[in-house]
Specification:
This protein is an alpha+beta fold and 111 residues long. Helices cover 15% and strands 52% of the residues.
Amino acid sequence: MSLNFEIISPQEVIFDQDVDLVILPGIEGDFGVLKNHMPFLTYLRLGLVYIYKDNKLINSFIVNEGIVEVLKDKCTLLTEDITETKDFKVSDDKSQIDQLKSRIISKQYYS
């Protein structure tokens, strides 16, 4: 039994595969989605997305907010800001770190 999981940004479809389990960073806490989950729509906060298939973690992403739609056999994440964890680089450049902190704080407190 599998669930189709898509990650879509305005520029491209980032991920589209059948998976067993997705764990997402909901605004009220992390939650998991399996096939035949109750349908709902919710917002995501800054956090990690974990994707499992055949009882193994196959991929993970860092998402900075988004919207998730869950249907019986499909889960779709819409976001403008997502990075595959293997591509995420921590910068020693203080200006980049300050810009990232400022962007996160402004989205958390002023959105």
